[in-house]
Specification:
heterodimer, A: 370 residues, Rossmann fold, 2 domains, five-stranded parallel β-sheet, 13 helices, 15 strands, 48% helix, B: mainly alpha, ABC transporter involved in vitamin B12 uptake, BtuC, 2 strands
């Protein structure tokens, strides 16, 4: 009797699996992965919304090649080990392409899974230079420029405002250290002297010692590679030690959460971030729809996330078949009309047609300078 | 290195040391009495900071004068955190106090995870802005070497150390605590109220940790549910460094740790900030396994 029971349960389970499998034949699965909860959720949620919203409109218009798209969203909180699990899960779900991941460290961790099975990955925000320059990840593309470009823009601007010496700090992570390394290379080009290059420990009790050290060498500006929690601590301790020189970071600190944490001490802080494309007609319309749907302005990387899903859907339309190889060829070979402008990709997977600009906190919000 | 710079770095390390000391006291007192490493202690520090932020938010709606507002908020948050310390002991440790030590330790780690996740879910996962009210306390003025919030931290720490020393030395409960840590069986035989004394130890430890949490948050201006973990580990290192179970040892260990980190950062590199802390721990434990001021206990077989 017990045998019969367990047999029937197994049969039932098997039956339900085959129903699922039959269902997914009809749909095209696109994965989206990033931090949707946790400390870094504000970097990931805008992309998730962008993907969902665009796929909704595509499905309403009949889908791709007569098939509807199903979005599978997986949360990895920017943690490398979770990113690996999530990538495996998306592969198992049969995703034809993945939008993501968001943080560079998570992207790097997850990419080997995707590379093994050849799935195209389009990230809206992973700016670590080596992801494309290493040549290890041929299926990767991104709708954002890379850190080395950010450093170019940062140093160009610092040179313009007459900075001759800098201190470079970073948070020892993939993203932050990468940004800082690039900044040093760029500084050499302009003959700007690097007085100090050091990593700080994220989550340390305070940064007064390192701020003292920076103040001790007295640079004309401080460049920081890292995210907003550390940046706001550094900036506020610089202010409380009366050491105020220009402080410039990357897109990791160009969020409203940074200003919310550092409050008035954020005033005057510089950050590089993708050029403001919100005035393009397509982008204006998409952003307006977002405000109507969610009741708030889209967050950081929304335009890039939207562009990423536009690229993938367009590539699926253009591809001869839906196997990974032809989709990838369609991505790398195509020109796409997106919310970040008309873009294409070079062989490495880096975007052509998107750049960075310098922003500054003025009266509690970031404004583009230049 | 100019004298001014040296003093600034010294003050920075001393500030850190003060905060470590406030947390390390709880570790060391609890260990002294029930030989438990209370891993949930760092979480009390975090809860102290969170409850203070909430109270400041609520009280600021009442239009109180700033100083009164801060005083009330600090007092209530201390009471609240003390309540947590008391409850943790009742729930997680009392029932298994006489079980093997490993069970207690695991219970402590579980409590720590529970509290972290509780704050994560009940409050928020993001970093929160914390008002830097220490600079508004009109007792001290910024100077080149010592700024107002550091001055407040030093004075508060010094005051607490003095109060605690007086308490442990001269009060009846303090004597009971010392008796329990020397020989629990004997203390029970002569009528020391074990449960009450242990509860009071947890409450005092929680009070100092909560004060530390409030002070640090008001100095750096942000809080996060995970802040207690790293601070707790460092304070634990400090307590071991000074000889766990020994109150002056914990304070000494904390200052050594804070100064090492500060001078290590400025003289060598901040890349290895955490490494310095652990190198110094290893060196001291090689030379003196019981810690700087710890006494050698012979294990009874």
């Amino acid at each position: 009797m017990r045998n019969f029971l367990s047999m029937s349960i197994i049969l039932l389970l098997l039956g339900s699996f085959s129903v699922f499998a039959a269902g997914s034949e009809e749909e095209i699965v696109i994965g989206v992965a990033g931090p949707f909860t946790g400390d870094f959720a504000n970097y990931g949620i805008p992309t998730q919304r962008a993907v969902n919203d665009y796929v909704e409109t595509v499905n309403a218009a009949g889908g791709v090649k007569g098939r509807t798209i199903r979005v599978v969203a997986e949360d990895e909180q920017c943690a490398a080990e979770q990113a690996v699990n999530v990538s495996q899960k998306l592969v198992d779900e049969g995703a034809v392409a993945v939008i993501g991941h968001i943080c560079s460290s998570a992207t790097i961790a997850a990419l080997s899974t995707y590379t093994d099975v050849g799935i195209p990955v389009v990230s809206p925000s992973s700016t670590n230079t080596s992801i494309t320059f290493s040549g290890d990840f041929p299926t990767f593309a991104r709708t954002i420029s890379y850190d080395a470009k950010q450093a170019e823009v940062q140093l160009e601007y610092l040179n313009e405002i007459g900075v001759e010496t800098i201190a470079v700090l970073h948070d020892k992570g993939d993203y932050g250290k990468g940004l800082a390394d690039n900044a040093i290379e760029e500084a050499e080009k302009y003959g700007i002297e690097v007085l100090l290059f050091e990593g700080i420990t994220p989550g340390a009790l305070d940064y007064s010692a390192i701020v003292l050290k920076v103040a001790g060498v007295n640079p004309d500006a401080v460049i920081f590679g890292g995210y907003h929690p550390e940046a706001s601590k550094l900036v506020s301790q610089m202010v409380s030690q009366n050491f105020t020189v220009p402080f410039i970071g990357g897109d990791g600190i160009k969020t409203d959460t940074f200003i919310g944490l550092a409050k008035e001490e954020a005033e005057g802080v510089y950050a590089t971030s993708p050029e403001d494309t919100s005035r393009l007609p397509m982008t204006t319309a998409v952003r307006a729809a977002h405000i109507e749907k969610y009741g708030e302005e889209p967050g950081v990387f929304f335009d890039n996330g939207y562009a990423a899903i536009q690229v993938v859907v367009e590539a699926l339309n253009n591809a001869e078949s839906l196997d990974a190889e032809s989709v990838l060829a369609a991505i790398k070979g195509g020109t796409f009309d997106t919310t970040v402008g008309t873009i294409s990709f070079d062989e490495k997977g880096d975007v052509i047609g998107v750049g960075f600009a310098v922003y500054q906190v003025v009266d509690g919000s970031y404004v583009q300078v230049d | 290195m100019s004298l001014e710079y040296f003093l600034q770095v010294f003050v920075s390390g001393f500030t850190r040391g003060s905060i470590y000391a406030l947390i390390a006291l709880g570790y060391t007192m609890v260990y002294g009495i029930i030989q438990l490493i209370n891993f949930a202690h760092g979480e009390i520090y975090m809860i102290g900071a969170f409850s203070l932020l909430i109270l400041i938010g609520v009280l600021s709606m009442l239009n109180l004068p700033v100083l009164a507002l801060i005083l009330i908020a600090v007092l209530v948050s201390i009471l609240y955190s003390a309540g947590y310390g008391f409850t943790i002991e009742r729930l997680a440790y009392r029932q298994i106090r006489n079980a093997q030590r490993l069970s207690l330790l695991i219970s402590a780690i579980g409590m720590s995870m529970f509290l972290q996740n509780y704050v994560l879910l009940a409050q928020t996962s993001s970093f929160l802005y914390f008002p830097k009210f220490l600079e508004d306390i009109p007792l001290f003025q910024n100077t080149n070497i010592l700024n107002a919030s550091q001055a407040v931290i030093f004075s508060a720490t010094a005051l607490i150390m003095i109060l605690l020393t007086v308490f442990v030395r001269y009060t009846r409960t303090g004597k009971a605590m010392r008796a329990l840590s020397q020989d629990r069986t004997m203390a029970v035989l002569v009528g020391v109220p074990t449960n009450r004394t242990i509860s009071i130890t947890f409450i005092i430890g929680s009070i100092t940790a909560a004060i530390g949490g409030g002070l640090v948050s008001a100095q750096i201006g942000q809080i996060h549910f995970y802040m207690g973990f790293i601070a707790g580990i460092k304070a634990f290192v400090a307590a071991v460094l000074g000889g766990i179970g020994n109150i002056p040892g914990a304070v000494l260990g904390s200052f050594i740790l804070g100064l090492t980190e500060s001078f290590g950062t400025t003289l060598i590199s901040s890349d290895y900030e955490d490494v310095f802390a652990f190198i110094i721990l290893i060196l001291i434990l090689i030379v003196k396994p019981s810690g700087l001021l710890g006494k050698n206990r012979s294990e009874k077989v």
